[in-house]
Amino acid sequence: MSPPVVVGGVFLSRELCDRVVREVERDAWWQWSEVNRGGRSYVDLQFRSAQVCPVIPSCEAVVAERLLAIARGLVPTFGAIHGVEGPNLLRYRPGDFVGPHPDVNPRTRVRPRKVTVIAFLNDRGFKGGVLSLQRPHDRRVDRVAPRAGQFVAFPASTMHAVSPVTGGNRYALVAWLH
What does R_g of the chain's alpha carbons equal in angstroms? Predict the structure, then answer.
């Protein structure tokens, strides 16, 4: 049986989330998020329409500190963690979405992704953008509405998607644990 989805816990305070969003909008360089298939990475706006950027330098320390603390706290649920990939910031503007996909591809990774961690950076000023997670054993779908500062962790093999944003900008941080 696969580990459960962990929903909850505080990744960052609402104030820090607001700061990250303000600073990333001021200083970041956004590009289209890529799809990874068959060992290739490319932009596919029919499958994933979202923008990505690295965490900006003014926010790196606080984000890294919190991500490592979250990773340590997830060990009892997911087992030993041997590394962190990311984090990246994601921006979903009106019309942006991500189709159903898992975050693993064992053929192209020396150290496969074990856990996906998503931290929501805002819950106001946008509509839509709900995270859907498909349970592997009973095919039910859990829907997680973004709450600023909250994180969600789940096995990287979990099929998940983000519904289209219908107004405003939705911000999230994503990282993978190995």
Answer: 15
Residue among 128, 124, 177 at smallest CA distance from 153: 177
User: pLDDT, tens digit, for every residue of 105-143?
Assistant: 655 666 788 999 999 999 999 999 999 999 777 778 889
Q: Which two tokens stand for residue 10?
A: 């505080």
DSSP letter, residue 66: H
CA–CA separation, 44 vs 29, rounded Å?
A: 19
pLDDT of residue 138: 74
Cα-based distances in Å from 48 to 43, 51, 118: 8, 9, 16
**Whether the predicted model's global pTM rises above the 0.90 cut:** yes
Cβ 43 vs Cβ 32: under 8 Å: yes
Q: Both tokens of residue 135?
A: 């349970």
Contact status, residue 171 vs residue 24, Cβ threshold 8 Å: yes
CA–CA separation, 21 and 97 (whole Å) = 19
Q: How is domain 6-177 classified at the architecture level of CATH? A: Sandwich (2.60)
